[in-house]
Design goal:
Elements lengths: L15 H9 L1 H10 L4 E2 H7 L5 H13 L3 E6 L5 E6 L1 H33 L2
Helix pairs in contact: 2-5
Amino acid sequence: MPQQPDWNVLVSTCPSRTSLARIANKWTAMVVVVLGRGTLRFGDLRTAVEGISGKVLTETLRDLERDGLVARHVYAEMPPRVEYELTTLGRTLHTPLLALSRWAEEHIAEVLEARDAYDARD
């Protein structure tokens, strides 16, 4: 059995950097958090993630599908129905991203206060 390389996100050539960049994207984080609630259609996702354009949502979903984090299900109905859900791998990402989003909500007042204090120094 071949030995798995030691991945290190701090090494410039490490492919894990692309995953970190994808995860760090604000739209990715929001889509994963919303899909953690369950399977959704495109329009429901767009409504849940306020401010995201249809184009950006489409690109984000394609990227997440390519990385194996989201599954896309197309149903042969009229009109066609498409649903998205987190894969098993995607569900492993939901918990840390949900924790990060909760941290942002819980600490935004402190962050805003720190920004104001920093800006007042100038």
